[in-house]
Amino acid sequence: MQADLWGWFNRFARQAYQEKHSDKIRLIQCYDMGWESLRAEKHSNARYHFEAGLQLAKDLGLPCFELFFDYWCAETIIFYESDYRTGLDRAVKVGARAHQEQYLNCPVRGRVYYTLMYVYYAMDAIGYEDKIREMITFMTSDIPLDADTAQRMMYTRSSLAYALENYDESKSIIQEYINITLGNPHRQSGGYNMLRMNAHAHGHLEDAVALARTGETFARIARLENSVALSLLWQAVYKQYLGDTDDAHVLYQRGIEHYQRFNLKPLPEYYNAVCQYLEQTGKIADAIDLRQQQLAQISARGSVSFTAYAHLAYARLLGRAGKSTTDAIVRAYEASNALLKPKRFRDKLAQVEAGNYYQFDWQKTW
Question: Taking the complete model, does pTM exceed 0.85, yes or no?
Answer without folding.
Answer: yes
